[in-house]
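Please go through the protein record below and see whether the fold suits the sequence. Record follows.
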Amino acid sequence: MTTGFDGRSPLIRRDGEGVARLWGKGSLVTTKLTAEETGGALGITHFSAVAGERAARHTHTLEDEIFIVEGGEVVLTVGDRTETVNGSGVLFLPRGIPHSYLVESETARFYVITTPGGFERFFSETGYPTRLGKSAPVGESWSVGRTQEFAGNLGLGLIWAD
């Protein structure tokens, strides 16, 4: 049920639907809903992550972030506190708080919801098309510098920790 992009029409994205990209250590990242589709209200991205997938410590200045872990083991560091979510759980991250995550299990599945929307562009524009398969520069070839450069070019208001 995809009827429009005005933020006032219902949208359903099923498993396998959305803009899928290869990311980081070789994870599949799928943008499920964009700011454009929700009238700017939010963006939703789903991760089918592999062991070692991580986000370097950073701070959002423009949006709040919600992690919904569906399965696997994800270590979340928020400010000075580190927690492990094993199985499932939810984390709310107000903007302005430095944080990072690391996938400890063989695989993990989680959603990242940002409000207002817009941050989901980071994943869809920085990741690599799935058609590249094993030739995509992910895993050991992934460039954190490139990732940070894309974030800057997109005007996402991220502050990276040293």
Observations:
- The longest strand covers residues 107-115.
- The mean pLDDT is 92.
- The first helix runs from residue 120 to 126.
- The helical segments are 120-126, 144-153.
